[in-house]
Amino acid sequence: MNTDPIADFLTRIRNAQSAGHKVVKIPSSKIKKEMTKILFDQGYILSYKFEQEGSREFIKIALKFDKNSQQPVIKKLERISKPGLRKYVGVDDMPKVLNGLGIAILSTSKGVMTDKQARKENVGGEVLCYVY
User: Fold this and answer.
1) Exposure check for the chain: N or C terminus, fewer CB within 10 A?
2) At residue 1, does pLDDT exceed 80?
3) Strands 88-89 and 56-63
């Protein structure tokens, strides 16, 4: 039983990158699937695949590294809203991560999306994490 599955998702990616792994396998959930799709769409990961093993579903993520220096593309994954202290923002208070170079992933009434999409759709929500 995991008390914070989103923090576990981010930690698994962070640990796999620091260990130099090319692929990481993470237990699946709806919100993790949506976050994976956002990471792929924003160019932070190479690819992903949803796999079924028995009754359990997993997400296989191919991590992206810089061609020359072999440094991971994701410099930092930071959990913002935690189970003990939720962080909600309105559309006016939407965070800009590294002056727009990074992204904030939000859970809104219209689904999981980036801060840029939320501004465009004029919705606020819970700030799940920062990625840059």
Assistant:
1) N
2) no
3) unpaired
